[in-house]
Amino acid sequence: MKPSSLTTKIFLDSGDPAETKQALSILGFLDGQTTNPSLIAKNPQTAGKKFSKQELLDFYKGIVGQVSVLIPQGSVSVEVYADASTKAEEMLVQGREFNKWIPNAHIKYPTTSEGLKAAEISVKEGMRVNMTLVFSQEQAAAVYAATKGAKKGQVFLSPFIGRLDDRGENGMDLISNIIKMYKAGDGHVEVLTASVRSVEHQVRAIEVGTDIITSPLRVLKEWKEEISNDKFQISNEIKNPNLKPIQYQEIGLDKPWQEYNLAHELTDKGLERFAADWNGLIG
Ligand code: G3P
C-alpha cells in the first residue's frame, strides 16, 4: 500500500487510537505513532476528567497498548514526564517501566542534560529512544554523541519545526541542517520531523530527506490526496518571506556530548507545556 518510491517512514502524531485506525484506513499503512503528554490531554476520553497519578499512567498505558496492537510492526513513542527539576534517574525509572508496556516502544526523553543522561544509559541497556524538543543543531550533535554505538533504528531525534515557524524562523532549515551535519556520522540517529503543521511541511520534509515524519491526522488526510494525484514528489519549497532562514553551522560530531550547548528557550517552554498539560489531568 505504501508507494515503493517513498522511503521516509510515516508516523501519526496522536494520543488517540481511534485516529490510528483512521490513519491506517486512509493511508493503508502507518510506520509508527508518536505520543506526548499534550496529545494524551487531547484524547477525547480525558475531556472534563481528572485522574490520580496512577490512573493517568494506567490510562496512558492503555492508549499505547491499543496503538501498539494496531501497528505491531511500527514504532510507538511514549514520553516520560519531566519538568525542569526532573533528574535523569527519575526519567530512567519511567523509561524502563514504559518500555515494558509494549514491545515496540521508543522512549521519549527531553533533549536536556538530564534527558541525555537518561538516554545514554537507556541505549546501553538496549532500549530505543526518541529525543524530543530539539530546536538546534548543537542539540542534535549532542544526541548523536550521547548515543554513539546505538544500532540503526534505536535512536530518533525529533526537531519541532512548527514551533520554530511559529516564532518566525524557518523550521525546515533545521531539518536540512541536521541532515547535512549527520552526513559526517555513522547514521545511527534517524531524523524524525515533528511539530508538523501543513501538507507543505509533509512534502518538503520528505524531499529534504528526513528519515521519519510524524504528522497530525488532518495533515495525513490532505497529503493522501496529494499521493493519490501522484503529486507527493512535487517540490513545495517553503519560501515564506516571513520566515527567517536558519543558517547552517559547522559543528563536529566527535566531542563528548556534555560539551555541546544544549540550551534553547523553546526546549524549556516545551517542557513546561508538556508538564502543565499532564498535571492538568491530575486532580
Ligand atoms: O510531535 C510533536 C508535536 O506533537 C508537537 O506539535 O503542534 O504542539 O508543536 P505542536
Quick summary of this structure?
By secondary structure, this protein is of the alpha/beta class. The chain has helices at 17-27, 37-42, 53-70, 88-101, 113-124, 137-146, 161-166, 171-182, 199-208, 217-228, 265-279; strands at residues 9-13, 32-34, 75-79, 105-110, 129-134, 155-159, 189-193, 212-215. α1 (17-27) packs parallel to α10 (217-228).
Structural write-up:
There is one protein chain. With about 280 residues, this protein is α/β, with parallel strands linked by helices. It has a single domain, classed as Aldolase class I (TIM Barrel). It is about 45% helix and about 15% strand. It contains eleven helices and eight strands. Strands 1-2-3-4-5-6-7-8 form an eight-stranded parallel beta barrel, surrounded by nine helices. β1, α1 and β2 form a beta-alpha-beta unit. α4 packs across α5, α6 runs parallel beside α8 and α8 runs parallel beside α9. The protein is globular. The mean pLDDT is about 95. Bound molecules: SN-glycerol-3-phosphate. SN-glycerol-3-phosphate binds next to α7.
The strand line-up of the biggest sheet is: 1-2-3-4-5-6-7-8
Mean pLDDT: 95
CATH third-tier fold name: TIM Barrel
Strand content: 5-15%
Total of domains: 1
Shape: globular
The radius of gyration over CA amounts to 18 Å
How many helices in DSSP terms?
11
Q: Strand pairing plus helix content: what structural class? A: alpha/beta
Bound molecules: SN-glycerol-3-phosphate
Helix content, binned percent: 40-55%
CATH superfamily: Aldolase class I
Q: What distance separates the N and C termini? A: 44 Å
Q: What characterizes the major β-sheet?
A: 8 strands, parallel, barrel
Low-confidence stretches: none
Q: How many distinct beta strands? A: 8
**SSE arrangement, N to C:** EHEHHEHEHEHEHHEHEHH
CATH class: Alpha Beta
CATH architecture: Alpha-Beta Barrel
